[in-house]
Amino acid sequence: MVSEATPSGDLCSIPALLARNARTYGNSPAYREKEFGIWQSWNWAQVAEETRAMALGFLALGLNRGDHVAVIGRNRPAHYWAMVAAQMCGAVPVPLYQDAVAEEMEYVLQHCGARFVVCGDQEQVDKVLEVQDSLPNVEQILYNDKRGMRKYDHSHLNWLDDVSAEGRAGHTRLDAELDARIAELTYDHTCVMLYTSGTTGKPKGVVLSNRNIIETAKNSSEFDNLRHTDEVLAYLPMAWVGDFIFSVGQASWTGFCVNCPESAETMMTDLREIGPTYYFAPPRIFETMLTSVMIRMEDASPFKKRLFDKYMAVARKVGPAILDGKNVTGGKFAYWLGNLFIFGPLKNTLGLSRVRVAYTAGEAIGPEIFEFYRSLGINLKQLYGQTEASVFITQQPDGQVRNDTVGVPSPGVEVRIGDNGEVYYRSSGTFVEYYNNPESTADTKDAEGWVATGDAGFFEEGTGHLRIIDRAKDVGKMADGSLFAPKYVENKLKFFPDILEAVVLGNGRDMCTAFINIDLTAVGNWAERNNIAYASYQELAGHPRVLDTIQAHVEEVNKSVAEDTMLSGCQIHRFLILHKELDPDDGEMTRTRKVRRRIIEEKFADLINALYDGSDSVYTETEVTYEDGRKGKIKATLSLRDAKVVDTKNKRMAAE
User: Fold this and answer.
1) Which residue range is the domain that position 559 belongs to?
2) What phi and psi values does residue 650 have, to the nearest 5 degrees?
3) Is the pLDDT assigned to residue 471 strictly greater than 80?
4) Is residue 312 within 8 Å of 375, Cβ to Cβ?
5) Distance (Å, rounded) from C-alpha 96 to C-alpha 98?
6) Residue 567: which CATH number?
7) pLDDT averaged over every residue in the chain
8) Within 10 A of 165 (CB to CB), how many other CB atoms are there?
9) 522 pLDDT more than 90
10) CA 75, CA 305: separation in Å to the nearest integer?
C-alpha cells in the first residue's frame, strides 16, 4: 500500500505553500501576464497580498466553507489567484473550459452546485446568464475584464478588482476569520475539483485533495530537478488537470514563475519572448509546430531546403544520442554545424531554446514527431497520466527516453497490469472520489486504492518501461483474429503535416478503413503555392490532387504498419476525407480534443457503410453548430479511395 505520509512542517495546503513562497522567494517573479503587448509581473510577495485581498473579498460576499467556486476564462494570474483565494476560504475551486458552450457549462455548474462563478470576461458572463434560470445555487457572478460590462444589472455582478478592494477595506473585520479558515486546512481537505473530458458520457467531477496535488507536485518536481528559477508558459485550459498541476501544484511547490500569454493567437510569439525552461504540450501542439516548420521549408529557397534536409538527416542520426550524453563516434562536428545554422535558429523560432525539460501527454504522440524534436536537442519526454492520478502515473527518466514507451512508474506510484491487459495504479495522487457519484467511484477505484485506467498496456521485460497499446475499450480484434489498435495507426497518419486528425475503423471487420481531416493551414498553403483556388474547407478536401496526396500518405503508413507483426492487420484498405473538421461543438471531440469514437460511428454511419460496401462516392448531410450557437447542415458528395496494402500473410508464409 502506498504511504500516507504527511508533509514536513505546515505545508499541507496550497495557501500554506503560497505563504512559504512569499517568505522564501518574496522578490522572485511568480506570475507574468501579457496584456496590450506588455508583460506585467508580480513577485511571490505581491501574489500573496493580491490573493489574500481577493479571499477577504470573497468572505465579505458570504463565501462559506465547502462552497464551490467555478472559474471560467483563459489563463490569467487573477484566475489562478481566485482558485487559491477560494481554498483560503475553505471553498473548492472548480475550473471550467472557457470554450464550452452554455449547455456544457450549465451541466457542470448544476452538478457541483456552484454559489460563486468567476468569469474572465463578458463572453463568459453572458454564457452563465444565458442558463442562469436553471442555476438556482449561483448567487454571485464575478468578472475579471470589465470591458462591455457597464450596462449590466450589477445586483449580483461584481468586478473582481472591486471584490479585492472591499477585502482590503474590510481586512480588520475579516482577517481573523480568514486566518482561522486557512489554519483549518489539512492534507485531506479538497484542493480542487476537475471534470473529466467525457469521452464516453457526461463529465465526472474528480475530487482531488491537498495530499493528491502536493505529494504529486513534490515527487514530480524532484524527479526532473525543477527549481524556483524555472519558467513555464500557462496556455492550456485551466480546467485540465495538467495545467493545474503545472501552474498551481508544481509552481507552488518549487516557486517557479508562471507566464500567461495574451491570447491564443499570440501564444507562439509570447512563447518565443518568454523562452520557458519547462514546457508541456499535448501532441496536437507539437504536431502544429512541426506543420508550421514544414510549411516554411516548402516556401524556402532550394538552397535553404537542401541545407535543412541535409542537417536534419544528421540530426536524426546522432541528435538523440548526443542529447542523452552517449558517446557518438561520427557526426558530432556536423551536428555542431547544424545546431549553429539550422537547429539553433529553429529552436529559437519555436521558443524552445531554453527548454531543460519538455513533456507531452494526453494521448500518444507519433514516433516520427517525437524523434524530430529530440533530434534538435530538445529534451522532450513522454508521461502517462490521468485526471484521477493528479496527472502522473509514469514518466521517462533522462537517458531512458524512447518513442514507444511512456517510461517507468513515477515516484510514489505503483502500477500493475490486470489479467485482461488493463493498466492499474495507486499512489498518493489517487483521487478521493467522483463528486456525488459513488457508483462510478466504486467502479474505478477498489477498496485497496487501485484505479482502473481503461488503457491496455504491458511492461517490457528488462527495461521495466510501460507500453500503452490503446484505450482498452478501443482495442479489439479484426474478423481474422488479428489485433485492432486504431490509435497506433492514427498517430502515424498525423505525422504528415497535411493530416490534422484521423479516425481508423475496423473492429470486428475484415479490413480497416479511415476518416481523414486535412490540416487547412498546411493544405491551404500547398494550394496557394500551386495556384489552386478554393472557397472552403469542403472544396479543398474534395480536390482530386488533395485526395492523391492523402492516398500517398495512407499507403506510406501501411508500409510502416506492415512491419509490426502484431498490428499489421491494421493497414488501411479504404479511406475518405471528411467534408468538415471534427469539432467539440458538434460533440465529435472532447474539449481536450479526444475523438469520441462512438458518437462519430453513429453520426457518420452512412459514410462507414459506403467505405465497406465498395462505393466510389457517397452523398451525406451533416448537422453542424456555428460559432453563434445556430444549427445548420452541410451537404456534400464525398469520394472514397482504395489504398494499397502490404500482403504480410504471404510474406510470413514464404519466410516460414
Assistant:
1) 476-655
2) -65, -35
3) no
4) yes
5) 6
6) 3.30.300.30
7) 92
8) 13
9) no
10) 37
Domain count, the chain: 3
What's the pLDDT score for residue 409?
Answer: 96
Query: What is the 8-class DSSP label of residue 390?
Result: T
Residues composing the chain:
656
Same domain, 93 and 67: yes
Strands 116-119 and 68-72: parallel
Strand partners, 222: none
Euclidean distance between CA atoms 547 and 542, whole angstroms: 7
Specify if 225 maps to a domain: no
- Specify the pLDDT at position 655: 43
pLDDT for 640: 96
The side-by-side arrangement of strands in the sheet containing 422-427 is 413-417, 422-427, 451-459, 466-471
Q: What is the CA radius of gyration of the chain?
A: 26
Percent of residues, the chain, with pLDDT higher than 70: 96
Q: Which of 423, 444, 471 is the last residue of a domain?
A: 471
DSSP letters along 431-500, please? Answer: --EETT-HHHHHHHB-TTS-EEEEEEEEEPTTT--EEEEEETTT-EE-TTS-EE-HHHHHHHHTTSTTEE
Name every residue whose Cβ is closer than 8 Å to that of residue 365 and which is 6 or more positions away in sequence: 283, 286, 287, 382, 403, 491
Residues 440 and 504 in one domain: no
- Do 62 and 205 lie in a common domain? yes
pLDDT at position 651 over 60: no
Confidence category of residue 649, pLDDT binned at 50, 70, 90: low
